[in-house]
Amino acid sequence: MAKVAMCAGHGGSGSTPGKRSPAGEYEWNFNDAVVRAAIAKLKANGVEVLRTDDASGKTDVGLTARTNKANAWGADVYVSCHHNALGTNWLNYEIGIETFTQNGSQPQSEILARCIHPKYVKAMGLKDRGMKKSNLAITRQTKMPAVLTEGGFMDSRIDIKSMRDNAKLKAQGEAIADGIMEFLNVKNTNSAPKVSKPSPGKTGSKQITKPSSPTKTKWKKLTGNWTGQTLGNGEYGNPVNQLQTKLANNNPPFYPNKGAKNNGIDSYYGDDTEDAVRRFQSYYGLDVDGLAGKQVYNKLSGTSTKSNPKKSISQMATEVIAGKHGSGHENRRNSLGISKSEYEKVRKEVNKRL
């Protein structure tokens, strides 16, 4: 009998700091609805399932505890269901869905992602942000093929409409179950159409696909330098490379695709670069249209501070206490321009002083 380990990311009932929509809705509640639907369909098709999070949502089970359970149980695959957010304020545009596998070449996990991703994108009816790579505890610590799904962004006024639709959350869970069963070659009653599996040797450490980008024949080539002229989706060349580099060198950085080769700096203005521009515009209070024009150019030219000396944990903690980096952990981390591990040290220093 096939064995599947699953979890709803984080916890509910206030057990996880943050992880809510701007309206205060817990991410775990969305995740839980998806996982319950997936488990129901898997069990209906004879698949054995282990749920590694607290199904009541009252506690946030640690990630190592979750992966240890799955490893000890001998699961064939692991799927962790999540919903994303860029910050704590509403964004007036669609962001979409993405699926993560562990950094580096992970052939079986990548095939599992290929089976799952297009199905739940279709179920939610949101923008396809592609299959991506990252260094995540769930995908790093498991001994079986593992993926982490992000079924939409809680701070997008567009995405949240689908996430508040119980029928769509149920469809998302069932679509994920369909993909799992396709990967495991489990006979599936009432399944979604199959997606052809790729050759394991053709995937690597970079982003696997850019499905929503224009096809190669539609790319418009640009030459010269970027001096503030408007750049947009579907263009490529040196000006786009200069934009991407400025975004990555900004403090905080806005990488086109962190985890991909060269952080997604590839001279192509596709969906990842447009998303990075939108995040940059939203962060700095600019008009959010996904186009890199004079406003974006001027702001990037005036705020690129990567060359500044690195601040100490003590200095950053002092600034956080003084309110210089706003509210909300993710906003503060972005404002400081530091990694999650570094921010955790800052947070501990702040708590020690208060």
From TrEMBL:
Q: SMART domains recorded for this chain?
A: Ami_3
Which N-terminal residues, if any, form the signal peptide? none
InterPro entries per the record? Cpl_7_lyso_C, MurNAc-LAA_cat, N-acetylmuramoyl_amidase_3, Peptidoglycan-bd-like, PGBD-like_sf, PGBDSf
GO cellular component term of the entry, any = outer membrane-bounded periplasmic space
CDD domains hit by this protein? MurNAc-LAA
Give the Low complexity compositional bias ranges.
Answer: 205-216
Compositionally biased, Basic and acidic residues: which spans? 341-354
Q: What is this protein called?
A: MurNAc-LAA domain-containing protein
Native source organism of the sequence = Oceanobacillus sojae
